[in-house]
Specification:
By secondary structure, the protein is an alpha+beta fold. It has six domains: 4-103, 3-Layer(aba) Sandwich (Rossmann fold), CATH 3.40.50; 105-113 and 120-125 and 204-330, D-amino Acid Aminotransferase, Chain A, domain 1; 132-201, ATP-grasp fold, A domain (Dna Ligase, domain 1, 2-Layer Sandwich); 334-445, D-amino Acid Aminotransferase, Chain A, domain 1 (2-Layer Sandwich); 466-500, no CATH class; 519-585, RNA polymerase II/Efflux pump adaptor protein, barrel-sandwich hybrid domain (OB fold (Dihydrolipoamide Acetyltransferase, E2P)), CATH 2.40.50.100. It has 15 helices and 34 strands. Strands 13-12-9-10-11-14-21-19 form an eight-stranded antiparallel beta sheet. Strands 3-2-1-4-5 form a five-stranded parallel beta sheet, with helices on both faces. A four-stranded antiparallel beta sheet has the order 27-34-32-29, with no helix packed on it. α4 (89-97) runs antiparallel to α5 (107-114) and α12 (396-409) packs antiparallel against α13. The longest helix has 17 residues, at 249-265. Bound molecules: adenosine-5'-diphosphate. Adenosine-5'-diphosphate (ADP) binds next to β6, β7, β8, β12 and β13.
C-alpha cells in the first residue's frame, strides 16, 4: 500500500479521501489555491502546498504547479476526487510519467468514456443501447432542425465533453435551435475546452438510475448496486438514494450486468459509474463517469464498504478480494446535497459567501461529509457544495424520516443553502410514492413557499491578505506566510503579533439592494461571460441583458422593463457583486 497520497482536489471530496487515508495509515498531501490557504482539507492533511491563483484554472487545474508539488512532497499516488483533473487523460499520463500512480482507470478508458459520443458507441458495441439519438457530432443548426422533425421536440443538445449538467440545452421548437446551440457550445468550451455537440431525444418522464461498478487489474469486475438520482434542478442532482425505489430486481440485475459489460468493453479498472435513464421499464445508457461520484456514500451505506479504501487498494495493485455473490445490500440510504444556493421561489441561485455558523446533526444512521466548518468561506470560483448529508435506515421510510430529522438539526448561517428546499421535497407525496422523474422538481413541485434567506454581516472577505513573518524552529530559519482574512487587522506590539477583529459593516445581506426599475442589478457574485445588448438597443421585459457565470453555472440576467438601453456598465469578463447595476434601461 502507498505511504503517501496527494489529493488533487479541495472541499468535501478532499476531506473524504483524507479521512480514508488516515484510517489506512497513509500520509496525506493537500494542495490549495490562494483562497483555500486555510480551508478544511488543508487543515486536515498531514502536509499542504500552495498552488497560487484563485480561479480553478490558475490553481486546481494548473498542471505544472501540481506536478511540482508531487515531486516536492514525494507522494506515490494521486487521488483526483471528482471534477478538476479526475477525467483528464493528459494529467493522468503526466503523473504516470513521473512514476506516480493515478488512482483511477487507465487513460485509454477515460478517453473512450470522456467523450459522450465515443462512449455511446462503446456501449452500443457492448450491447447496451443509448438514449434514442445520434452518435455523431453536429456542426450546423439545420442538422438539429432535421433531428427535431424526425424525432419530435424537445431535443437535447449535449456537449460531448460536458458534465455536471453543463453544456446541455433543451430545445422545444425550431426557433430556439440557434441560441441553444451557441449557448451549449460556449458553456462547454468555457468549462471543458471543447465544443463538440451531439443530439438525443429529450425523454419526457425519465428517472436517472446509475450503477456503481468496480474492476481490478486481474480482470475481476462487479456491480455494487444502483443509485436513483432523479431529484434534479438544471439537470444537476439534488437528492440521491439507494436502492432505487419501486425498481424490479430483474431490471436491477440486468442493469448491473450491462454496466459491467460496458466497463469490460473499455478495459476499465477502479471505481466507475454507468449512468442510465429509465423510463417505461426500459433503461438507456447515458454516460460513464470514470471516477468516484459525489453520491457514492449512499452505496457505501447499503453495501457497508468504504469505496475510497477500495479505490486505493486496487490502485496499489491488490485484487478486489470479493466476488459478485459476496455483495450484500442492506436497508436504504438517502443523500441530500447541501449547496450554497438560494432556492427562493424554486430559482436555486448560487449564493457564495461566508459560513458564519455550521452545526452538524448527529445520531444513529447519520453522516455529514462537509468541506467547510464555521468561519470558512464559500468562494464564487468553485462549486457550491458545502456538504453532503447522508442517512441510512432499515427501509426507505425510516431513512427518509431520519433525513428530515437530520436536516432539522443541521444549522448553517451566513449564506443561503438548500436545506429548506430539501425538507419540502422529502415531504412531497409524489416523492414519497416514488412517482417522480428528473423533470418532476422543476415542472411539478410548488417551491413558491421558499423565501429569500438573508443574513447580517455577510460582508466578510472572499480574499485574504498575506503577511510574511520570520520564525525559528530549533534554530532553523523559516519564513512563515500569515493569511489574514480581510476585515481582520494585524496589530504588532513589541515582539508579539496579534490578529484583531475590525468591526464589520452591518448591512442587510442576502436580499439584493433595491434598485430602480430599469437599473439592472445582478443578484449574485459572478463573472460576466456575454453581453447580449448594446447601447441604443430596444429591449422587452424578460430579454436577457447579460449572461453571468457564478459557481460554474450560466445565469441569464434579464431586463425588468420594456425600453432602450441607455448604458452598459460592465465589460466581458468583469467580476460583479450582488446588487451591482450592470445596465440602465429607460
Ligand atoms: P452531465 O454529464 O452533464 O451530468 P448527463 O448526460 O449525465 O450530463 O445528463 C445529466 C442529466 O440531464 C440527466 O440525469 C437527465 O436528468 C438529463 N438528461 C440528459 N440527457 C437526457 C435526455 N436525452 N432526455 C432527458 N433528460 C436527459
Amino acid at each position: 500500500m502507498f505511504k503517501k497520497v496527494l489529493i488533487a482536489n479541495r472541499g468535501e471530496i478532499a476531506v473524504r479521501v483524507i479521512r480514508s487515508c488516515k484510517e489506512m495509515g497513509i500520509k496525506t498531501v493537500a494542495i490549495y489555491s490562494e483562497l483555500d490557504s486555510n480551508s478544511l482539507h488543508v487543515r486536515l492533511a498531514d502536509e499542504a502546498y500552495a498552488l497560487g491563483g484563485k480561479t480553478a484554472t490558475e490553481s486546481y487545474l494548473n498542471t505544472d504547479a501540481i506536478l511540482n508539488v508531487i515531486k516536492k512532497s514525494k507522494a506515490e499516488a494521486v487521488h483526483p476526487g471528482y471534477g478538476f483533473f479526475s477525467e483528464n487523460t493528459d494529467f493522468a499520463r503526466a503523473i504516470t510519467d513521473l512514476g506516480v500512480v493515478f488512482v483511477g482507470p487507465p487513460p485509454e478508458a477515460i478517453e473512450i468514456m470522456g467523450d459522450k459520443i465515443s462512449s455511446r458507441i462503446a456501449a452500443e458495441k457492448a450491447g447496451v443501447a443509448g438514449v434514442p439519438g445520434r452518435s455523431e457530432s453536429v456542426k450546423d443548426p439545420s442538422e438539429i432542425e432535421a433531428f427535431g422533425k424526425e424525432f419530435g421536440y424537445p431535443v437535447a443538445i449535449k456537449a460531448a465533453y460536458g458534465g455536471g449538467g453543463r453544456g446541455m440545452k433543451v430545445v422545444n421548437s425550431k426557433k430556439e435551435v440557434k441560441e441553444a446551440m451557441e449557448s451549449a457550445q460556449r458553456e462547454a468550451l468555457g468549462a471543458f475546452g471543447r465544443d463538440e455537440i451531439y443530439l438525443e431525444k429529450y425523454l419526457d418522464w425519465p428517472r436517472h438510475i446509475e450503477m456503481q461498478i468496480f474492476a481490478d487489474t486481474f480482470g475481476n469486475a462487479v456491480w455494487l448496486g444502483e443509485r436513483d438520482c432523479s431529484v434534479q434542478r438544471r439537470h444537476q442532482k439534488l437528492i440521491e438514494e439507494s436502492p432505487a425505489p419501486d425498481f424490479d430486481d430483474k431490471i436491477r440485475q440486468k442493469m448491473g450486468e450491462s454496466a459491467v459489460a460496458v466497463a469490460k468493453a473499455c478495459g476499465y479498472v477502479n471505481a466507475g459509474t454507468v449512468e442510465f435513464l429509465y423510463q417505461d421499464g426500459e433503461f438507456y445508457f447515458l454516460e460513464m463517469n470514470t471516477r468516484l461520484q459525489v453520491e457514492h456514500p449512499v452505496t457505501e451505506a447499503v453495501v457497508g464498504m468504504d469505496l475510497v479504501k477500495l479505490q486505493l487498494k486496487i490502485a496499489s495493485g491488490e485484487p478486489l478480494g470479493f466476488s459478485q455473490e459476496d455483495i450484500q445490500r442492506k436497508g436504504h440510504s438517502f443523500e441530500c446535497r447541501i449547496n450554497a444556493e438560494d432556492a427562493a421561489g424554486g430559482k436555486f441561485l448560487p449564493a457564495p459567501g461566508p459560513i458564519t455558523k455550521l452545526v452538524p446533526p448527529g445520531g444513529y444512521g447519520v453522516r455529514l461529509d462537509a468541506g467547510y466548518e464555521s468561519g470558512d468561506n464559500v468562494s464564487q470560483f468553485y462549486d457550491n457544495l458545502i456538504a453532503k448529508l447522508i442517512t441510512w435506515g432499515s427501509d426507505r421510510e425510516e431513512a427518509r424520516l431520519r433525513m428530515l430529522r437530520a436536516l432539522s438539526e443541521l444549522k448553517i448561517e451566513g449564506t443561503a443553502t438548500v436545506i429548506d428546499a430539501q425538507k419540502l421535497i422529502l415531504q412531497e407525496p409524489d416523492f414519497i410514492k416514488a412517482v417522480h422523474s428528473t423533470r418532476w422538481l422543476e415542472s411539478k413541485v410548488d417551491l413558491s413557499a421558499l423565501t429569500a434567506q438573508s443574513f447580517e454581516n455577510k460582508e466578510t472577505s472572499t480574499s485574504t491578505n498575506a503577511t510574511t513573518i520570520v520564525s525559528e524552529v530549533n534554530g532553523k530559519r523559516f519564513e512563515v506566510k500569515l493569511y489574514i482574512p480581510e476585515g481582520l487587522a494585524m496589530e504588532t506590539k513589541g515582539s508579539n503579533s496579534a490578529v484583531k477583529s475590525k468591526p464589520r459593516s452591518r448591512t442587510q445581506q442576502g436580499a439584493i439592494k433595491t434598485v430602480a426599475s430599469g437599473h439592472i442589478a445582478v443578484p449574485m457574485q459572478g463573472t460576466v461571460v456575454k453581453i447580449h445588448v448594446a447601447k441604443g438597443d430596444i429591449v422587452k421585459a424578460g430579454d436577457t441583458v447579460i449572461t453571468l457565470e457564478a459557481m460554474k453555472m450560466e445565469n441569464a440576467i434579464s431586463s425588468d422593463i420594456d425600453g432602450v438601453v441607455k448604458e452598459i456598465k460592465v465589460k466581458n469578463k468583469d467580476a460583479v457583486s450582488p446588487g451591482d447595476v450592470i445596465a440602465i434601461i429607460e
